Amino acid sequence: MTESNPTQVILTDDGVKINLRVEKKGLIDEINVQAGNTLISSSGQLTLSGKNIYFDTDNPVIIPSANITGTLTGKELTASTINGSTINGTAINTPNLNLGDNGQIVGNYSVNDDVGWFQPINGSGTLQISNGYIRSTANILYYNKILNGIGGDKWGHWASSTQFVPAPDQAHPDTGNIAESTFTPAFLKLDIFEADKSKVNSRVYIDGTGLYINDGGTQAISAMLSDYELVSSGMAYLNSGIQMKQAATFTFGNLAMNGYHSISMLDGNALNFTDNPHTGGNPIEITAKTFTKASRLSIKHDIKPLSTAESSRLLNAIDIEKFRYTHDGAAYKYQYGGVIDDVNSLGSKQYSMPPELLSEDGTGINLDSLTGILVKRVQDQDKTIAELSMRLTRLEMEK
Length: 399
Description:
The chain is an alpha+beta fold and about 400 residues long.
């Protein structure tokens, strides 16, 4: 029986080149050897099989398209474009890394700082770069050095920006926080969460409008994300102070200061010096070279003379006592002056103090008014003494 498509093998040698050609059913395989050029061509599959296959060439091997299913070992791969879904390796060195539209880079890390560092941490987390965000999230143990005496120099976690909780077992501390930092072109945000990330314990937020610190406490994440960041009760630690322009104003609630030697209360109320910034703080001592009262005519109105009778009435209506303040110990010296009876009801006051000499809120004595009354009394007494001296001189002369 004759084969309808027999295999044709043609071997030619013309003294310049050797050509081996095999053809069957439209498939052609050919080896062409000549000085300086060799061609191996196949219209189907070409397989190079061997224990080791070497490409021995001075110039790069040109492969228009390749699928390497094994490992490229010990060689440098140079290309203008490498396309693929996954590239595994220990390092990518490049001056430019283009991630394309919303590309991502994700990496895991661990950190174990020496306790000799400033505010060291210990933990592990993930760094992610995507959609214009650089976000780092980690489970962190903190070593507190800021709040000495409140868990200072110990491992633990932050319950708020000002409340540090040391771990009960310092040898094996297991309580920490979830810490997260987010950097974008618009803002930088630093969060300290509960260990289960259910609450925001502290937040620092920086954008083009300023720096905002929020002590989250027990605030839920959903509420923190929707709240206006300026509502703040956190704490900033400025060990080297603050440098500001002379004309700039530094404002704390109603208290404002600037570089022109001015301290202002924006609500017009009194400035209190106490040992506690919250309500109920005890008064403290103030030491200065001198105190000057503003007394210019340009800032006064409704000026009337103080009569001798009125100054005498006010001065004689003061009960002068000696006393110690309730927060003073027995070793403190006695102080002397008037007492404002804010304990007993009207009509049963234990100590007398004219209301004209009280501060506007009735909690203190207006020392300037008291000084004015004393000066007036001394002036009146000087006149009386002068008159009596004159009369005494006349009597002496009449003898």
